[in-house]
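step: validate -> pass
step: tokenize input -> pass
step: predict -> running
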Amino acid sequence: MPESVVPVIPRPAASVILVRAPMSVYMTRRSDALRFAGGYHVFPGGSVDQQDQALAQERPEELAAAGLPPDRAAFVAAAIRELFEEIGILLARDETGKPLWMPDGFEAHREALAGARRALLNDEVSLGQIVSQCGWRLAGDRLAYMGRWVTPPAAQRRFDTLFFLADMTGAIEPEPRPEDGEVALGEWLSPRVALEDAKAGRVRLMRPTRAWLEELAACGSAAEAWARFSSPGARREEVFETNTPEILRSVLEAQGVWMVPVPSPTLPPHSETNVYLVANSGEAVFVDAGHGGPEGLALLRAAWVRARSPRVRAVILTHSHTDHAGAAAELAAEFQCPIWSHPSGYFLLGNTPAGRPGRPAMERRALADGEVVTVGRLQLQVLHTPGHAPDHLCLFIPSAGILFSGDNVVGVGSTWVGPPDGDMQEYLQSLERLAALPARILAPGHGPILADPPGRIRELIQHRLAREAQILALLKQGPRTAEALAQEIYGPTAPPGVMEVARRTVIGHLVKLEREGRVRRMAGRADLFAPVAP
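step: predict -> pass
step: emit ->
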């Protein structure tokens, strides 16, 4: 892994799930313009900051009432503070013991609460100073600890989050602040309805949010939920998410990237091409198009709807091979947008404005190495990475560490590199360039999403160098053709289609070795290769 990819230490955070009778939960929808989890429904919460740490030292007994040890008191403080900042509910009691989250206490201190909230949001005062000046006491006993979730290591933004439950039955109505730029709306939802809306694509949920909603949906009432999680013997789940493809896919979606595997005529072991929709702030691009016909277009349109139907700026092609670009014209026509690609691939798609016969007209634009494509607030760096194909492009989102690798790096197996399009020397140079990127998540053209892109790329480089050494070792035993080398390396049981790809890859290695002066063609036999003596 390059030195620029440093481990991300999870930020301590707290989140509060408000419930009320008979059984509903309060959720806020984040602004679509946010780079992380834009448009997602979440529970109120945020990071633990310095004032929370200070409050844990100043009021340990009040915070300890939540039932957690002293080293987690700052999480309780953050939960109370974030709830007050985001929706105007302060879990505290006045000097007479009156709860400030209930109507009587709220009305008695309405002006003081409103002023304190404004001052807190403007960073003019800390929550500790507010409660001290007003003579209030924090109500840690109104929070029941539910469990802990830690974001996977590959994510650029990681959180170590403690989740709490609070029963707000009979309390004041929450007051979200849409003008603060983060919260778009706040609403009470039945857990079952929220899960159904998520399944239908009307609501976006992150994995922990979905998991807690599923648990709450199993509770018959808000009182039952409170009794369950406030019980001393309640299960306290601690989930440390790992870098599995499923979890990484959810991490991508939180960054506004949807992976859509589209059935395409490609090579084993793959049968699909991964098309990606990158969306932010009402804008989007597709990365590749696949070649899935009407079924593929339907899958891509469904992903576009889940992303709230953003304006599609372009279809960006990693390269012009049919399994990646076969449906480019149809996809561009579907969303009335141009096709962007490296100029060297134009001829493979049709150089005329009308494209190939029987296909819609295509508006084209060339992308240059080093160019930056903006999608809302996201930026995608364009990298010309020839080798598998002369027009091959990769795209990189620095803010999220996401690398779209096309066919240069696939999720399973290795890429074939040989004539007529491939160049092994350029391919290895491209891999070296990609390995140097501070990438955290690999979004390949085929196969599963992977963590540790530099490690995966180094693995492929070593695989190619080992294959090269194997070819040289066989040639030292005697001159051989590419066909003979492929048979010896891959074995006679390989399917015909795979053997043809293997033969081309062997030719790719031989051409590279010939350029480097390490092998030569036998006189009068252009297809027969022998090593060059040192």
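step: describe -> The mean pLDDT is 91.
step: cleanup -> pass
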